[in-house]
Amino acid sequence: xxxxxxxxxxxxxxxxxxxxxxxxxxxxxxxxxxxxxxxxxxxxxxxxxxxxxxxxxxxxxxxxxxxxxxxxxxxxxxxxxxxxxxxxxxxxxxxxxxxxxxxxxxxxxxxxxxxxxxxxxxxxxxxxxxxxxxxxxxxxxxxxxxxxxxxxxxxxxxxxxxxxxxxxxxxxxxxxxxxxxxxxxxxxxxxxxxxxxxxxxxxxxxxxxxxxxxxxxxxxxxxxxxxxxxxxxxxxxxxxxxxxxxxxxxxxxxxxxxxxxxxxxxxxxxxxxxxxxxxxxx
Length: 282
Fold this sequence. Notes:
Layout lengths: L3 E4 L2 E3 L7 H5 L2 E9 L2 E2 L2 H15 L6 H14 L7 E8 L16 E8 L6 H4 L2 E10 L14 H7 L7 E8 L3 E5 L3 E6 L2 E5 L9 H12 L4 E4 L1 E2 H5 L3 E6 L3 E8 L2 E2 L4 H13 L7
Parallel strand pairs: 7-8, 7-15, 11-12
Antiparallel strand pairs: 1-2, 1-6, 3-4, 3-5, 5-6, 8-9, 9-13, 10-11, 10-14, 14-15, 15-16
């Protein structure tokens, strides 16, 4: 799944050795689902990208130009038949060696286009198996919620298993608080309340997570965004995970904890369907 990469509208297959994204992971990224030729939840992705640029003091890309470049890349990759995965990488740019940052650096902006691979139908109908990872997320409130290039925490966590029956690993922070999956956000249901961990010290504020929270607010569902631990998960009646690519997957098992019915999860999947954002079977 190497995809094709573009910079300033031109196909590229390398990055400058002096680029700070390569040297220090000094940058950010967004991964966007493209359906029927349109970037899904575009405004939310742009808002998070802009916020990350501001937090890192990286010059923000011009939004109209960025969208035009994405559309050009998608047109070039015409084999994707309207459905694709687009990854935007923004780095601070190239510089001399050292951590010091020069003023008014020109950022590097790369756009990758990848084929869309549909997940198995059973992930939506039968639920998935997950595990609790031993690797913990590092704490950094200044960049919590953002999608930064440095993903070693997630890489180490994903290295913990090679069982194809396990679709995702759930990660805790250094204090043992439940945060998110390696590639997803987590929701639980307990006593008719929908719970999701707060993202204040680490983890990613997922675009699909934000979309789901807004749909729940509109429908006046009881939602708690707070600090939770594994004991909360162990006593929950339902669990599901989400991300911008696959939407929602019910969780059938997390470690030794099993879930056999997902009435609230099915409600939320219905809300996504009504909003025009749904992956998997109807």
